[in-house]
Structure formats: C-alpha cells, structure tokens
Amino acid sequence: MAVFQPDIRPARTLGAPLRAVRVLTRPRQARVERVLFSAVAGNTFTRDELVAAFAEFEKTAEFETPNYNLLVDWGLAYDGLNQPDKALEKLRQAAAIEPTAHIYTQIGYIYAKRSQWTEAMQAFNTAEKLDPRLAITYMYKGQVYLATNQAAAAVTEFEHALALDFRLGVAQEGLATARQRLSGR
User: Fold this and answer.
1) Which is it for the CA torsion 154, 9, 73, 163, positive or negative?
2) What's the predicted TM-score (pTM) here?
3) Is the pLDDT assigned to residue 26 strictly greater than 50?
4) What span, in angstroms and rounded, lies between the C-alpha atoms of 173 and 81?
5) Residue 104 domain-assigned?
6) What is the domain count for the chain?
C-alpha cells in the first residue's frame, strides 16, 4: 500500500516548521495565555510543547468560543501528536466557521496521511473550488496521485502548483519523481 510522503508540511506553514508564540489575551477580564502557531523557519515543537498547548487551548475555550484560528491551531497540534481523529474534528469545526481553501487542504492532508485517498481528494477538490489559486492544493493532489501510482496525473498537478508558486520545493521534487516514473526509470 502506498504511503503519503511524510516530508509534506501543512499548508499553513508554507514549508516552514511551526513555532509556538505566546499571546496574552483578556477575554471577559480574565488574563489567559493563548498559544498560537506561526510559520517561522528553524523552530519546531517538541511533544511536551504540543501537550502544553492543549492546556492553553482549553483555557482559552473556557473564556471564549473558539474561533477559526484557534481551532486550526488546535487541529494542527493534534496532528503533531499523531491524533488524526481529534485533528479532523477541530479542523472540521474550523471549516464550519469559515470554509476556506486553507482549511480544506489541512483536512485533506490528514486524510492523505492516513491513506484515505478518496476523502483526501474530496477535501482537496473543495479547496480548489474555494480558491483555485492556492498552489499547495495542487501539490497535495500531486502527492496523492504519486502515492496511488498515477504518475501522469501527478505531473499535471505538480506543474499546476509550480505555475502558481515556483518555490514549492516538494512540488519540484514530486514533479521530478513523477516524470522519472513515467519514463520507466
């Protein structure tokens, strides 16, 4: 069975590892530390940092209804701890609040990591409909096609991704791999 390539990072990071940033908020006059994620190259989370983030997410959720960004961050943290069901739950909640291409790429990403190709492609197709200019959608679709031995379709998706953003290194590598498979090497 094909495995979704692990070197693909969530679209939220645009290729950069995640880093925790502490932000002080005062919902309902209570001072609560809230952990947000931002894309900053060179920093990654440890398991302990991800676990600590959950306490902060839960504290914040006690004082205010979780918004789109908090739910996305929470879902990505669950993904970082390899808890895909919980990750999908939070990401779906975010999609219910704000159905964006970004959130559907994240949902598709989780499904793809689980080799649930149909569900992954449905999410990526939704992302494409919401924002046809989001290059990472096509990169992820190309990865799914590579993982399912559909090299010709992968080439098309990787080329589309690179036409929108030539800097996507994973798409460049995927395109080279797909072309190599097509040539029989």
Assistant:
1) negative
2) 0.76
3) no
4) 27
5) no
6) 1
- Which pLDDT score, from 0 to 100, does residue 96 have? 97
What is residue 44's predicted lDDT score, i.e. its pLDDT? 59
- Domain-located, residue 34: yes
If phi > 0 it is left, if psi is from -120 to 50 it is alpha, else beta; for residue 111 that is: alpha
Residue 129 above 80 pLDDT? yes
Q: Where are the beta strands (DSSP E) in the chain?
A: 18-25, 32-39
pLDDT given for residue 47 in this prediction: 74
> What DSSP string describes 90-123?
HHHHHHHH---HHHHHHHHHHHHHTT-HHHHHHH
State the Cα–Cα distance between residues 164 and 156, nearest whole angstrom.
13
Does a structural domain hold residue 47? yes
- pLDDT band (50, 70, 90) for residue 4: very low
* Lookup: tokens for 162: 């690179």
Q: pLDDT averaged over the chain? A: 79
Distance, in Å, from the CA atom of 77 to the CA atom of 163, rounded to the nearest integer, reads 31
Three-state secondary-structure class, residue 19:
strand
Query: Domain containing 30: what range?
Result: 1-98
* Residue 75 forms part of a structural domain: yes
At 37, which CATH number?
1.25.40
Asked if residues 149 and 2 have their Cβ atoms less than 8 Å apart, the reply is yes
